[in-house]
Design a protein that fits this description.
The structure is a single chain. This protein has 209 residues and is an alpha/beta fold. It has one domain: P-loop containing nucleotide triphosphate hydrolases (Rossmann fold), CATH 3.40.50.300. It is built from nine helices and eight strands. A five-stranded parallel sheet has the order 2-3-1-4-8, sandwiched between helices. Strands 6-5-7 form a three-stranded antiparallel sheet, with no helix packed on it. β5 and β6 form a beta hairpin. α1 crosses α9. The protein is globular. The structure holds adenosine monophosphate. Adenosine monophosphate binds next to α2 and α3. The site of adenosine monophosphate has 18 residues, from α2 and α3.
Length: 209
């Protein structure tokens, strides 16, 4: 299963990605997580990404495409992969399609998580992220997954959320039609509890894989 997960910030991509990656036994490749771990480790990639991330802007395509290309060359992708947060614009989608075509491993499907704008702001501004395992939570003190301390991502602060939503509408939403035209798009509602959404996603994906 070679899968891309798309949807606005706050649709629950990170959470669903964890469950879907475990269900299909495929690596979860989240570009935002890769940038954040580089930032934590103080690498030049992390420092380059920081100013864009803090403002809710996209990191330049040249940097992001190269990073994903390198990740897709690793040897743990025998069962496929789940890309979360990439592609974020049509150029990235085209570069991904070309990279995968070279290896004769086209995408199996693109899963869109759809959600109302009102719900997004509420979800994101109350979201915390674990400093240890990186999972999102609504718990304000400790991570329910590993017990680590939690923090509020700079880009989950209200000022930055609205810019991230604009960036999504302007730059990322066009990839939905791109993938619809490719015949790869599957849309499921991201409302409801986490388990319901996962079941919805798995039953939709099982029809195409
Ligand atoms: P996320 O964790 O997916 O919400 O990503 C956090 C931030 O990382 C985004 O707001 C961007 O600044 C950056 N980022 C993540 N994925 C990409 C991408 N595919 N292209 C450009 N920037 C990205």
């Amino acid at each position: 299963m070679r899968l891309v997960l798309v949807g606005p910030p706050g649709a629950g991509k990170g959470t669903q990605a964890q469950f879907l990656a475990a269900h299909y036994s495929i690596p979860h490749i989240a570009t935002g997580d890769i940038f954040r771990s580089n930032l934590k480790a103080g690498t030049s990639l992390g420092l380059e990404a920081k100013s864009f991330m803090d403002r809710g802007e996209l990191v330049p395509d040249s940097v992001t495409n190269e990073m994903v290309k390198t990740r897709l060359l690793q040897d743990d992708l025998g069962n496929g992969f789940l890309l979360d947060g990439f592609p974020r614009n049509v150029l990235q989608a085209e570069v991904l399609r070309a990279n995968l075509a070279e290896k004769l491993t086209p995408l199996t499907a693109v899963l869109e998580l759809s959600i109302d704008n009102d719900e997004i702001i509420t979800r994101l501004s109350s979201r915390r992220t674990c400093k240890e395992c990186g999972l999102p939570t609504v718990n304000k003190e400790k991570c329910p997954n590993c017990g680590g301390d939690v923090y509020q991502r700079e880009d989950d602060k209200v000022e930055v959320i609205s810019r991230r939503l604009e960036v999504y509408q302007e730059q990322t939403a066009p990839i939905i039609s791109f993938y619809r035209n490719e015949g790869l798009l599957i849309t499921v509602s991201a409302s409801g509890n986490v388990e319901e959404i996962t079941m919805r996603a798995i039953s939709a994906l099982n029809r195409v894989s």
